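// run 5 | inverse folding | seed 20
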């Protein structure tokens, strides 16, 4: 196994809870599901949880080899894509979104490898000039149950991959089985390219064709349900390794 100092450092964004009686802490605390970190470790990376500090985004990104923007039980502020908020279906976490957007913009400015997961994909779409469906059930009542009723560590539906995209080449197959835990979705990918769709046409993956590695997926690959999940995480960590050797001057 490589020496820890040689592993690529992968920043993983965290959630934030206000704390209170009966919670983990009576005071505010950060939260991050363990399998995000475990999946990065299995792929050969060294994960580190990132705090909410937009003013330090550039400094954090300067020390990282890759960035994962995670999902969570909240929504992207519609003002980021020029829409009015439907308060009946949209729950915001302004400080988290501000932090993740600052990190994402700093990472993209440095062409750092980026993987957006679920809400992270939706934020990536907004950053690339796209728009979102604020509530699938309201706008697309004929859609699949994207908030699947079965456990999240099981597949909920199939996605079809777009040929000749980075994600399509990574997975190496026409389709894969994924879990599904979202009530919003990408409506218009903006400057991104669509690299996967669900059977009902909902966009399930996007990527920035001008970046070395900038991919967003609507599902949660950290559960490693499909072989394509492991391939995606391995490719992301490989891109982070390449970034590290290139920036340090040890590579090409």
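// decoded
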């Amino acid at each position: 196994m490589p020496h820890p100092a040689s592993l690529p450092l992968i920043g993983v964004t965290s959630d934030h809870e206000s704390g209170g009686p009966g919670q983990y802490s009576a005071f505010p605390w950060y939260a991050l599901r363990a399998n995000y970190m475990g999946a990065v470790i299995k792929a050969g990376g060294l994960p580190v949880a990132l705090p909410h500090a937009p003013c330090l985004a550039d400094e954090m990104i300067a020390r990282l080899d890759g960035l994962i923007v995670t999902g969570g039980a909240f929504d992207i502020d519609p003002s980021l894509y020029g829409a009015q908020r439907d308060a009946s279906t949209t729950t915001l976490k302004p400080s988290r979104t501000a932090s993740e957007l600052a990190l994402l913009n700093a990472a993209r400015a440095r062409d750092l490898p980026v993987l957006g997961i679920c809400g992270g994909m939706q934020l990536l779409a907004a950053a690339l000039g796209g728009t979102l469906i604020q509530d699938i059930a309201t706008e697309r009542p004929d859609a699949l149950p994207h908030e699947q009723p079965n456990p999240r560590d099981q597949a909920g539906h199939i996605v079809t991959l777009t040929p000749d995209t980075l994600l399509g080449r990574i997975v190496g197959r026409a389709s894969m089985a994924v879990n599904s835990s979202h009530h919003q979705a990408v409506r218009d990918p903006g400057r991104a390219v669509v690299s996967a769709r669900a059977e009902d046409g909902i966009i399930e993956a996007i990527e920035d064709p001008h970046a070395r590695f900038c991919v967003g997926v609507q599902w949660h690959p950290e559960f490693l349900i499909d072989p394509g999940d492991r391939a995606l995480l391995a490719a992301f960590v490989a891109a982070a390794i390449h970034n590290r050797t290139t920036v340090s001057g040890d590579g090409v």
